[in-house]
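[step 3/7] fold_predict: job queued, chain A
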Amino acid sequence: MKKLYLIGGTMGVGKTTVCQEMKRKLDNAVFLDGDWCWDADPFIVTDETKLMVMDNICYLLNNFIKCSSYENIIFCWVMHEQKIIDDILFRLNTNGCDVKIVSLICNAEELIKRLQNDIDSGIRKPDIIERSIARIPLYDNLKTIKIDTNNKSVNEIVDEIIGM
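[step 4/7] structure written:
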C-alpha cells in the first residue's frame, strides 16, 4: 500500500527540511513542496491563482499516486485551514493509499529564531515573522496529527512521522 504524507505548518516551522529528509529515508519516495506550484514574482493572490495552485498540486500528486515507481508520496504546504486539506483530499484518488495528515508546530520563540536565521541568510524578508506567528493558533483547529518540533532534531521529527 502506498503512503501519502500531507505535512502542514506555518512558514519557517521546518516542513521542507523535514520532507527532504523523509524523501531520503523512505524507499521509492517522491516529494512535492506546494510552494513550487506557485513560485511567481510578483506573488499574486486572486481567486484565479488560488484555483490554479490547487489544480497544479492535485494534478502532480495524482500522477505520483498513479505512478507504480513511487511507494511514498510526500507533500508539504502551509495548509493552515481545514478547507485547504479537505479540498486537496477531495481531488485526489487515494484508493490504495494510507494517508497521514500532519501539522508541524513549534512555539513562537523557536519560530522567530528559525525565521531570523532565514532572514539573516537573505532567504526570507522580515515581514515573514509577524505573518507566520499569526498562523500558529490556526493549526489547533485542524484535523491533523500535531508534531511539536521544539527541541527536536530533524531526524527525530522524521522518525516520528515515519513511525505513525
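[step 5/7] annotate
The mean pLDDT is 96.
The CA atoms of residues 105 and 148 lie 5 Å apart.
exit 0
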